[in-house]
Each structure stands twice: as structure tokens, then as C-alpha cells.
Amino acid sequence: MPALDTQTKVAVIGAGAMGAGIAQVAAQAGHHVFLHDQREGAAEAGRDGIAKVLQRRVDKGKMDQQDLDALLNRIQPVADLSEVAESGLVIEAIVENLDIKRGLLADLEALCREDAILATNTSSISVTSLGAGMKHPGRLVGMHFFNPAPLMALVEVVLGLATDKAVAETVYDTAANWGKKPVYATSTPGFIVNRVARPFYAESLRLVQEQAADPATLDALMREAGNFRMGAFELTDLIGHDVNYAVTNSVFNAYYQDTRFLPSLVQQELVSAGHLGRKSGQGFYSYQEGAERPEPQTEAPRQSNESVVIVEGSLGPASALVDRLRDAGLKIIERAGNGQLRFGQAVLALTDGRLATERAAEEGCANLVLFDLAFDYAQASRLAIAAADQASGQAIDDACALLQKAGLAVSRIADRPGLVIMRTVAMLANEGADAHLHGVATVADIDLAMKAGLNYPEGPLSWSDRLGAGRTFTVLTNIQNSYGEDRYRPSLLLRKNCFANKGFYA
Ligand SMILES: NC(=O)c1ccc[n+]([C@@H]2O[C@H](COP(=O)([O-])OP(=O)(O)OC[C@H]3O[C@@H](n4cnc5c(N)ncnc54)[C@H](O)[C@@H]3O)[C@@H](O)[C@H]2O)c1
Fold it and tell me: Of ligand 1's atoms, which has the minimum distance to the CA of residue 18?
């Protein structure tokens, strides 16, 4: 079956935040759209909301008034569900409740054409169980848009056990024609994005719980070293802690309480206090009028007359740091070794998931200062360091001075395994690896979903490959040893790739 042509009428049931957005997307693509909501006036209000947003585009000269009028004419609010009967595609975006959605699907089956595709925008209900009560479950497919639907490119096309492959292909091709970036996923809890993204929040929350650093510092590192649009605290303040905590709990329970998805006590406290984020005026940060965002912890400038850096072996993914130091006028002396920098008293190395304190003892190198992963060491403006307990004050001063000479703001965090960006990226890749291993999606679709759905700077699997075969596996193995927790167990796929000396894309 090819993509649906624009002659095909589309119905959207539920005219809330998502339904109205989806109706706009389908109408913009040229379809006639029936918009229905059981709440009186909600469908009209949904259309009015679209009109208001798009009128601003017209006022700015970014859209023709004629095009807007035509688009609004294509969105037809309907009071009675039976009026959607001639639709070729019906997308439900009603309340997230299994029984109510099942009831709606039964009504739709009774009144729609036999060849009509029924799609659900559910975020957390199994497409398989939604289809279980249907006469023809083959025609039900997940079409999971992201909020706000007109702006977010990703659509997860979710196949339940009974979903007809041709139906899924039609929805995939149709979403692509609508200008979206579709990916396929099997019906598993959280599909791709809501599952693979859990560590993005969880690792930052855990670092705060362990007093590694404050939220403002961790957020700054995620942005300035990790190239993420937002850090976990500012993002969860925006999403709402009630919503984010509920998704985490739902995924945690759906995976039989696998500790990989363990919810955070820190976040639970916020929810209990009603500190839900922006919408309540208080989350990790205050949103009261006049409130200022706290500054990230940044080491004071250090002076050093030292001008020579000894580079021992390859720094692997951090090699661009050496170029930056050279460009800053430092004299670089290269010699054999296992990937570290010597400057004054300091010995600097990229984290491998061990505590700095433990690694210093194991390697007989007291003045060890670990630095974190950066998305791109040539561009990063901030980097985290963690010093071994044994390190001298002078060694820490020298480490700061060196990184500052390269133009980096330095945030010193407490000595925790894998620092900030490395442990987050390793855990994201770990979850992506398991999602692929368990047949949820292809490697390319997992990476695409994380980029298009959450604006990650790179897919976690491609990022993991870029770190070099085996590095993510080693980091996770070391973090797991440090904590002695199952939460950090590496995926079998990372283990296999490590011993095969290959990546996800190789
Ligand atoms: N909000 C998000 O970020 C988001 C993202 C992706 C998917 N989703 C999913 O989309 C769906 C809708 O979410 P939302 O945020 O738009 O909710 P919402 O509460 O804003 O809107 C739901 C609408 O459905 C209507 N409704 C409820 N039962 C109905 C029925 N039986 N028939 C017709 N209309 C009915 C309600 O009156 C309401 O207007 C849910 O399944 C949700 O999980 C939400």
C-alpha cells in the first residue's frame, strides 16, 4: 500500500494539545481533516488555537492569508463521531486510558470503512493490548507524535503483535509525506524515545542526589560540553516533574522494576512538594518574577608559568584537546603511554568509568585528575574534572590552569564514576543497544528517533561508535564495579561489539 494521497480524508479524535497539533499537520499536508472531541466546543477551540498560532505567521509575512484560510477550511470540527465515517485514516489522541481508548476503537470499527486505518497516538499503552479487543487488529498502528506535533519531526510508527505490515508502511510513508521523520518501533514500553531517554534524566538526578554537583553546574555541562540543547534539570522543569516522574515510573514498572529505570527520590520529593517546575513557579529553579538562575560552579582562573605539556599515548576521543593546547601556544612533547597529559604536577586523563581515587591508587599515580567526555573537544566551552582524593592542591591547580589555557571553563565535581557526560552517554547507548538487541528498532532508527524527537546532538549509538569500539563497554563495566549495581550492567550487544572490535554501524 502506498502513502495516503491528499484526497484521503483524515480524522483526529481528541482535540487537546496533541490532537489539535496533529490535525494541523494533516491539514497542512493537504488533507481534509475531521476534528472530533467529546467535550462540547473543544474541537472548535482546537481549530481556533491553530488559527491563532498560524495568524502570527501570516502577520510576520511567513505565510499567505489565503493559504491560512484554505488550511482552516480543511479542518472541520464535527460534533458526532459518526461524521468521521468516510475517513481513510483515523488518529486517536484522547485521554491515556486503556478502557476508554478500547471503547473508542470499537465504535470506530463499527462505523468506519473496512479499509480505514486506525492509528493511536498513545505514549505508554501497548498497541498490542489496544488491538486485542478489535475485530480487525491488523488495521491498528501506533502513530506517536511528539509535543508540539507541528514542530517536532519525529513520528514513532508502532507495530503491535497483530499490526499488518502494509498498514504500518502506509502510515510511515504518509508521515514522511507530511514532512515528518518516521521510525518503526515494536510495541514495547516507552517505544524508542521514552525508553532510551530515561538515563538522560536519571544520571543527572543521581549525580545531584550523590552531591556530585548542583543542578546549574550539571545543566551547564550538558549544554556546553555535551552539546545538548538543555540539561536535565531545566528540561524536567519545563516538562513538569509530575509528567516526567510518571513516565519514569510507568517505564520502570512496565519493565518489571528493572533498576536501569529506577525513579529518583530527589524528583519524587519535588512532586510531593508540588514543585512541578515552570508551571508551578518552582522546580529545581525558581520561576518567580525576578528570580535569577544560579551560576554554574566555575573554577577561578589559575596562573601557571609552565609551558610544556607531555602527551603520553593517544587520548582517543579527546585528541582534539591536544590541538587546542598547541593552538594556545603550549609546547607539546609526545611520548608513548596509555593516554594521559602531564602538566606541572597534574596528570590528566579521560574518565574510563573508574573513580579518580581508585584509579590513582591502582595506577600508582596520586596526582590524577580525570576529565569528562565532550561532544566535540575542539568546540566545547566547559569541561568537568574530578580529582583523586590523593591529588595535591598544586596538581588540581595545574589541571585547571591547563584546561583554562585551552579556553575551557572548568567545573570541578566530586569524584564520581564516569563524571557527567561520559556516564550519561554510556547509559543512553546502553539502553539503545538493548532496545536494538530486543528487536524494538533498527540502530539507525534509534539514533534518528533520539535526534528528531529530543534534539540530541547525535544518536547515542553513533556517538558510542565514535568513542571507539569497546570504550562504552569498559566505562559501564567500571561504573558497575564501582557501584556494585545491576543498573549499570552493560548490554550484551556492547559486550559482543567490544570483543568483535566493531561498532553498531560497522
Ligand atoms: N501531551 C504530550 O506531550 C503527548 C505526547 C505524545 C502523545 N501523547 C498522547 O496523546 C494523547 C492525548 O494527549 P493530550 O496531551 O493531547 O491530552 P489532552 O488532555 O490535552 O487532550 C485529550 C482530549 O481528548 C478528549 N477526549 C477524552 N476522551 C474522549 C473520547 N472518548 N472521545 C473523544 N474525545 C475524548 C478530551 O476532551 C480532551 O480534549 C494521549 O494518549 C497521550 O498519551 C501526549
Answer: 16
